[in-house]
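quick one, two chains, predict together pls
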Amino acid sequence: MASAPNLAASFDPATSPDLVKRAELSEIDASTKIPVLFFLCSAVLWLLVGTAFALISSFKLHTPNFLGDIEWLTFGRARTAHLNAVIYGWSVNAAFAVAFWLMARLSRSVLRHSGLLMIAGVFWNIGVTIGIGGILAGDSTSIEWLEIPPYATPLLFVAYALIGAWALITFRFGKSEHIYVSQWYLLAALFWFPWLYSIAQIMLIIEPARGTVQALVNWWFAHNVLGLWFTPIGLAAVYYFLPKVLGKPIHSYYLSLLGFWSLAIFYNWAGVHHLIGGPVPAWVLSAGIVASFMMAIPVIVTGINHHMTMVGSFGALKYSPTLRFIVFGAISYTITSLLGSLMADRQVSMVVHFTHFTVAHAHQGMYAFFTMVMFGSIYYILPRLLLKEWPSAMLISVHFWTVAVGITIYVVGLSIGGIKQGLEMNNADIPFLTVVANTIPYLLSRSLSGVLMTIGHLAFAVNFAWMLLRPRAPQATAPTFFNTPPDMEVAR
Amino acid sequence: MNRAPLLFLGIFFTLAFSWTGIVLTNQLTYGKLQPVIDETENKAYPEQLSGLAEQGKLVYQDLGCLYCHTQQVRRPGFGADDKRGWGDRQSVARDYIREGRVLLGTIRTGPDLRNIGARQASRDWHLLHLYDPQITSKGSTMAPFPFLFEKHKIVGQPSPRAMKLPAPHTAEPGYEIVPTQRAEALVAYLQRLNDTYAYPETKNVFVEPVEMKKEGQK
């Protein structure tokens, strides 16, 4: 990793001491501008759509008559539209944008064939739009994480094939001799996702497997989308931005090596823990439980590596929006993954499996970890694409605090509610409707957190649009920090 | 790690490992599981759904019932599925082999439905419950499905299919509320959810049936 002399310098390419390198990075950034912006704008729009469906679904769970007459917005559809909008709309678009930008920078090569990416982006977003329209109209497949109806998936396939071809070309023509840890994660993710997705499509929708083999394929896919697609891209971003922002190298090369390969080996077996107690062969579940526990290795190793990189630099959290989001995400990754291992234990699963605890856990992974890392990455990338700074530090601050507090209330509230729900559900002396009634306070806390997060997303979207639309300052301006770092004068 | 081919091989083989173990091995070992032919009854179990019930299953899928209801009974002693009357035996792989789409589900915001047809056989109960769950299960958080019903002006004789709604849900005088074809199909599917047949592999886990509890009371 390149190291910068101080915090401000690390934020601002214009202050890099090496003129040649600075010019090269600017050229690379400029070459990524159009496709990365396209994917980022799509991501932000989908984030807003997904948030609206999230709020509707959340209200419906404690007030079932809310919009109860509208078939298109019945809970089963609104909730599914939410999932698909935030996963295939927001998260995948953001992941693509961040991955392309990182790939170009880390291969030290200008982004070629951006036309391919633009076509892919158009196909992807049309596919997701048709898919979500289909879900709302009642064409959902009812296969979790694969609800997009079969008439929309070919568009997603075409988009992904183009992106895969592009990734190979970029990697092949890269100038950098060294393959940095972020690149391992990106390459692996870009390779794993189409494999998972095509097997799942074939064995569940095109030529469905018989009986509960479907459930095994479903959870092999759905859990691996988290672990082998979103997690590697999130970690790639953490591995890039943490040292970049701090201006120092990652703590240990060997720990990153161990973390990567142990994730690759163990994660892909873990997904079947979603079927504990279910009608599938017990040995598969046992293997999944073992793999889930072994996941503690990559998680702890990666956690230590990130923590040791941060040690001595926690003060920078006061200034840097990127760092604050990324560190929040990295800490959440460690917590949610260790909890995930614990949830695979049969006795724990017996209580929490079918409850809101699982919902809290999923949001801790996809939001508190992945989405926060994406927010942090966008705060870093966008100024370098547009050559202007974020218009409002206040809006960034509102964004951070509302979503950080929001997701914390969400996860804590639903986790407690879920454990209570599970214990009561396993006690047949408590009538089922009492169990349901006892979850309502926790479901209300989730709606409250949803409102907070919505405010945060609006602040983010306003800042994003404002930045796109406002004219570029005639002279280079200082990066947007929460506070002005003391060494700013020196850097300029 | 500067050797790209090695990196690629590693990335390939790690996922190939679980793909072989979880997907391929299980497809080969029980992907061709057959129905059991009961010679005393001269029937093959599990039984095929009727056409109407198959349509009802599509309604179940398109409304997303899966996102609140499971269709899998855990073994006695692992949770309280049996004591809640959700099934007198554990669900087994063979129960699902006739289903084009297996809807095990992962969350129990509402109760498990694998045996809802056994514990709640009444068509009228299901229709009332779907029209507005508060009629049959006060305090339920289930979504109402009024759009599965139509309001008609009564012309001549009232329809025999008209809903017998309690106040204050009744339609205004001269009108009646009639379930649509989709509601009838969904109810036919729910009534058909009934895994009580004892397969050879369930006999060793079979326990005495507990008294089935009616939905809404328990």
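The mean pLDDT of chain B is 91.
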